Amino acid sequence: MGVDPDESLIAKVDEELLHSHHERMAPTPREDDEDARQEDIIRDSIASAMWQNYVQIMGKISKKNGGDLSKEVQWSSVMDDALVDAFLHQVIIGGRVNGAFTSKAYDDIMKELVENFDMEINKDKVKNR
Fold it and tell me: Which InterPro entries match (predicted)?
């Protein structure tokens, strides 16, 4: 099935589409848009409330550790997954005896987490997680 495209017609349609697209897509400047200003106000108030909440929570954590935030471990889902994998590995290799993990198992888990995440993690933080 042969088609004989009319190149001049295609060029004309392309030109019309190009101009009509720009006419439809001409945005209203954000500064002149009342809805945009309201969005900015709402966004800023939400951000402010989140920051105040964060500061309040971190202040409580800081007081708990004598003012040293570096002692806190902020666990992420990736870290949780690695911790579960490390515990599972210890179960498989016999690091859990009579329903409890051995001291060596905790040492190995702690060592693995420190190597993987370059953070200060001790046995208490692993046990309390």
Answer: Myb/SANT-like_dom (IPR024752)
Q: Indicate whether 80 and 120 sit together in one domain.
A: yes
Q: How far lies 118's CA from each of 87, 88, 109, 114, in Å?
A: 19, 21, 13, 5
Taking the CB of residue 121, how many other CB atoms lie within 10 A of it?
21
**Cα torsion through 42, 43, 46, 49, rounded to 10:** -100
pTM of the model: 0.46
Q: Is residue 116 part of a domain?
A: yes
Number of domains into which the chain is organized: 2
Q: Please, are residues 113 and 83 in contact by the beta-carbon 8 Å criterion?
A: yes
Q: Which domain, by its residues, includes 13? A: 7-64
Q: Report if residue 2 sits inside a domain.
A: no
122 within domain boundaries: yes
- Coil, helix or strand at residue 96: strand
Tell me, rounded to whole angstroms, the distance of Cα 44 from its chain centroid. Answer: 20
